[in-house]
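Researcher: Re-running this chain for the archive, since the previous output was lost when a drive failed. Same request as before.
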Amino acid sequence: MNQLRDRYLDLYEQHAEKYARRPQTMDYPVPPLGCTWTDVVFLSPVHLAPIFDALRESGRIGPGSLDYWTLNADLLDPRRTCILLKRHDPELRPQPAEDFIPHSAETVATPSPQALRRLRNLNATEPLYPWADIPHVLHRGPIALNLFRDQEGHPADA
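Model: Regenerated structure tokens:
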């Protein structure tokens, strides 16, 4: 986000909207990387299909295909990367330092039963936090687009 603000103000403003009700979140620290929330790229180490299937069961999203990109975790610099054990917190408090653990390319997870149960049972008025209770990979700084692959394995920048 911080780099977007400096280079693409329109994109920054568009994405900053999601923090309008909780602007303090943008300054939350990411202790192992020595930066803030808006200095990192958030990635999911879990496949998205079970998450979106649970959201469809709750009626919060409709049917449709799922487009996504993948990234080989071995390509991420471990000095600029960590894992966040993203716990669901309705009060949206900063994550404690112990929830940030060293990055490992072997860290692959499936959504927890708790996370999927919460998503399956969302009602129409509850906030939609699909990534709560699912670990995140946080990478400080940009990631080259040519490292990402589409569903067929082709480079995302092709």
